[in-house]
Amino acid sequence: SEADRVFDVERVTARLADVGGMQDVKKRLEMAFLGPMRNTKLRKLFGKSLRGGMLLYGPPGCGKTFLARALAGELGASFISLAVSDVLEMWIGSSERNLHELFEAARRNAPCVLFLDEIDALGHKRSSMGSSAMRTVGNQLLAELDGVDSVNEGVFVLGATNAPWDVDAALRRPGRLDRTVFVAPPDAPAREAILRYHLRDRPIAAVRLDPLVRGTADLSGADLAHLCETAAEYALHDSLTSGDVRMIEQRDLEAAMAETKPSIGPW
Ligand code: ATP
């Protein structure tokens, strides 16, 4: 169907341990989703359902998508990801059906993490989409989130946004995306973990990461991933030229750091 073309149902192998930093965020996920999933008996004793929503907010590139995918891996759940801003225009006139199909796919594939990126796009007052069309999508989303009876059992909906102030308050009411979690730019321990993660499968000499951790205070997770790729490019280039593998060295990392511009800016 039309809706099927804009999303895939993924099986993921990522784990929360792959996500650098975010201790507080991981704790929230543990309490809301992971713990209850692991122990059905205790979950029922305490009257907790196996479903739920959460709104992740924070500057771009700091791991919201990465985290949502890792949550799916950790839950043993399937993963469906969709950028709301990308589909809105495409769905004009058929948004109710498409949204319904999206949620039906999540229900069929439960347990499932349904990741709705840029969910604030639903609130944009000046979009080219008329306000009545926008209201229709918004209302349909609320209806799907509420569900009837237990249709959403096993469906975990994570919304993400860089602009939480634009997110419709109705979306955040109980039973919907009723937990709000800030995904911060990485602090020093998180930056170290992110660098290690992105270097883990690359040929690397003995390097000291502390100068890099100190020099990257204004970089996002995405920037750090880019830094590692740039360093790898330098060593790869030499390897290609000489025909021998030259491992990634301190100088490659530092040159890459000097070259990597922060993408977050004031947020
Ligand atoms: P946006 O708001 O632009 O959607 P985002 O917060 O969803 O951004 P991601 O797309 O998850 O950010 O991050 C981009 C990439 O940066 C990831 O694919 C990953 O390679 C890297 N990255 C970001 N944060 C982390 C992290 N905490 N640990 C490891 N890698 C990270």
TrEMBL record:
A molecular function (GO) term: ATP binding
Keyword Metal-binding: no
Domain AAA+ ATPase: 50-187
Keywords, sorted A to Z: ATP-binding, Coiled coil, Nucleotide-binding
ATP-binding found in the keyword field: yes
Top-level division of the source organism's lineage: Bacteria
Family: Belongs to the AAA ATPase family.
Name of the protein in question: SpoVK/Ycf46/Vps4 family AAA+-type ATPase
Organism of origin: Catenuloplanes indicus
Lineage summary: Bacteria, Bacillati, Actinomycetota, Actinomycetes, Micromonosporales
